[in-house]
């Protein structure tokens, strides 16, 4: 929202409070996204590998606990990143070469080694992220080994249609985010650097509803008609979305 306001007002200024909010929401929602993808991979593992026990494994109380754990862990990571980042003494020119308050760019404004706390938090979160990534990989190893043993082509197709959208989102989100954070920060970033940031901050959440909605038959039918130039009435569009 702040970036949109800056464009409309032709002003690149951001206050410290707004920057703090950006860092908090960016880090907490970024971690929550990875945690949700991990829970979803376990959900698909339970649905495909143990279909008869799925309702017991993923009962409402466990789902509720998983959701609470996701958002609680996201808030904790956001608080840790925010407090350690803004405990740094910024003595260089307060110019951030990014369209939002990116933590690597903020660290470059430090004039001492007091950013070691941020590095410690980043290392801790990276270890947890690696655990989540390993869990996703192990889940899909079991899923694909089970799917390949399914005799009917229809059963395999149904299983793959359940997993592939999620697998695509996981691959896109993790690959772009990892590349963006492992890439050295520059004092004069190019348009390519900004595009990479857009890829991992804007595209994944934008693609999520599109990718998952394409599994819905009504959505696929509406999408085909749209591509073929079909005209929808207000009533038809409402029914398609329902």
Question: Care to describe what's here?
Answer:
- By secondary structure, the protein is an all-alpha fold.
- It has a domain at 2-151.
- 74% of the residues lie in helices and 0% in strands.
- It has 11 helices and no strands.
- α2 (16-49) packs antiparallel against α7 (153-182) and α7 (153-182) crosses α8 (191-201).
- The protein is globular, with a radius of gyration of 22 Å.
- It starts with a helix and ends with a helix.
- This is Olfactory receptor 14J1-like.
- Its main location: membrane.
- One of its GO terms (cellular component) is plasma membrane.
Using brief descriptors, characterize the structure shown.
242 residues, 74% helix, mainly alpha
Number of beta strands: 0
Distance between the termini: 29 Å
The H/E string reads HHHHHHHHHHH
Helix content: over 70%
Give the low-pLDDT segments. Answer: 231-242
The largest sheet, given as strand count, sense and whether it forms a barrel, is: none
* Number of helices in the DSSP assignment: 11
Quick summary:
With 242 residues, the chain is mainly α.
Topology:
Blueprint: H1 2-9, H2 16-49, H3 54-57, H4 60-85, H5 103-107, H6 116-147, H7 153-182, H8 191-201, H9 203-213, H10 217-227, H11 234-241
């Amino acid at each position: 929202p702040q970036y949109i306001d800056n464009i409309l007002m032709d002003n690149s200024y951001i206050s410290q409070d707004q920057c703090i909010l950006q860092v908090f929401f960016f880090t907490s929602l970024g971690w929550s996204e990875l945690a949700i993808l991990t829970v979803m991979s376990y959900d698909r593992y339970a649905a495909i590998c143990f279909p008869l026990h799925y309702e017991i494994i993923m009962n409402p109380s466990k789902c509720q606990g998983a959701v609470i754990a996701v958002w609680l862990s996201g808030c904790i990571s956001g608080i840790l990143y925010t407090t350690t980042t803004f405990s740094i003494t910024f003595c260089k020119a307060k110019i951030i070469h990014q369209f939002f308050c990116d933590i690597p760019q903020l660290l470059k404004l430090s004039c001492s080694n007091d950013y070691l706390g941020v590095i410690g938090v980043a290392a801790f979160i990276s270890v947890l992220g690696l655990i989540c990534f390993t869990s996703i990989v192990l889940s899909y190893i079991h899923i694909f080994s089970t799917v390949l043993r399914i005799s009917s082509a229809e059963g395999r197709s149904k299983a793959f249609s359940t997993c592939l959208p999620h697998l695509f989102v996981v691959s896109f989100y993790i690959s772009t985010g990892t590349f963006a954070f492992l890439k050295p920060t520059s004092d004069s970033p190019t348009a390519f650097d900004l595009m990479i940031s857009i890829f991992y901050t804007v595209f994944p959440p934008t693609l999520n509803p599109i990718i998952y909605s394409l599994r819905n038959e009504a959505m696929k039918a509406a999408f085909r008609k749209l591509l073929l130039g079909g005209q929808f009435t207000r009533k038809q569009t409402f029914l398609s979305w329902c």
